[in-house]
Write a structure and sequence with these properties.
Blueprint: H1 3-9, E1 12-29, E2 35-54, E3 59-63, H2 67-71, H3 77-89, E4 96-101, H4 112-127, H5 134-144, H6 148-153, E5 157-161, E6 165-168, E7 176-181, H7 188-193, H8 211-221, H9 227-233, H10 236-246, E8 251-254, E9 261-265, H11 268-281, E10 286-291
Parallel strand pairs: 3-4
Antiparallel strand pairs: 1-2, 2-4, 2-5, 5-6, 7-9, 7-10, 8-9
Helix pairs in contact: 3-4
Length: 297
């Protein structure tokens, strides 16, 4: 279903923006097995879209380039989110038809499922005309996954702990960016298992950072601790990084646990040109030129 058709067919629509880990430092591990992380996160002007409409009975439909892939997944976070929110709201949560336009690759390190869950929370709250306290909504989001509270914000932020301790970053500028993924799955547990060290230096950003150049320097000095083990599992991650650099990317890095990589470019025109070149070389990959949101969105 085209984006404009989604807006026409459904009374409420929400965008599930791609989540980009500009930095991801693994700083420890809790007794329950969860890893402690420091992350600098931003969100892109591309992603999945969801539509919500009152219905006689609950319904869920899919479209988009990766909709068919998701159709066979019995653990869809959208449906889990609907059911969890309905438990909270009770009889006021009438039946709903949810449509997911799946534009992002599955399990690709850019928060697709978590962003869908967060968009479902936002959309159903609007459709059902309900308003929950911030603390309650945050608790529901965390039950759905460690990345869901970040995606509920969908704006530049620093997340610590397992992702639940969030601090917004109003000074982070927008970046022209290319996302590329070889459409090969990466096992997040296996990436963490191969991680050489789990007590790495924390993320430290200088106070008063301003301007694109200052932020690029800070981002360049950070890292993604999951990238080395992910490269062992999916060698294409190294190839993508090299291709982005060859196209003039100022910074290249893997997002999340992979396999999506991003390249930051000086202008949107440069990003679009690079994306076209990568797509020409590897039409079988997911390649997307986009712009991230600014902290002052």
């Amino acid at each position: 279903m085209p984006e404009e058709g989604l807006a026409e067919a459904f009374g409420v629509t929400e965008m599930a923006r791609a989540k980009i880990n500009l930095a991801l430092h693994v700083t420890g591990q809790r007794a329950d097995g969860y890893h402690l992380l420091d992350m600098l996160v931003t969100f892109a002007d591309c992603g999945d879209r969801l539509g919500f409409l009152p219905a006689q009975a609950d319904a869920f439909t899919l479209s988009g380039p990766f909709g068919e892939t998701l159709a066979g997944d019995g653990t869809n976070l959208v449906l889990r989110t609907r059911d969890l929110l309905r438990e909270q709201l009770g009889a006021l949560a009438f039946p709903v038809h949810i449509h997911l336009q799946k534009n992002l690759p599955i399990a690709s390190g850019i928060g697709g499922g978590s962003a869908d869950a967060a968009a479902t929370l936002r959309g159903l709250m609007r459709l059902w005309g309900m308003d929950l306290p911030v603390e309650t909504l945050a608790s529901l989001a965390l039950k759905l996954g460690a990345d869901v509270p970040m995606c509920l914000e969908s704006r530049p932020l620093i997340a610590r702990g397992i992702g639940e301790r969030i601090e917004v970053v109003p000074d982070l500028p927008a970046f022209a960016m290319v996302l590329a993924n070889p459409l090969k799955g990466v096992s997040t547990p296996e990436v963490f298992r191969r991680l050489a060290g789990k007590n790495n230096p924390a993320l430290h950003l200088a106070r008063g950072l301003s301007g694109t150049d200052g932020w690029l320097t800070a981002i360049g000095a950070a890292r993604n601790d999951l990238e080395p083990p992910a490269r062992e599992l999916v060698p294409e991650i190294t190839v993508i990084s090299q291709m982005l650099q060859a196209q003039g990317a100022l910074i290249t890095r893997m997002s999340g646990s992979g396999a999506t990589c991003f390249g930051i470019f000086s202008t949107m025109a440069a990003a679009q040109e690079a994306a076209a070149a990568l797509h020409g070389d590897r039409p079988d990959w997911y390649v997307q030129a986009t712009e991230t949101v600014s902290g002052g969105m």
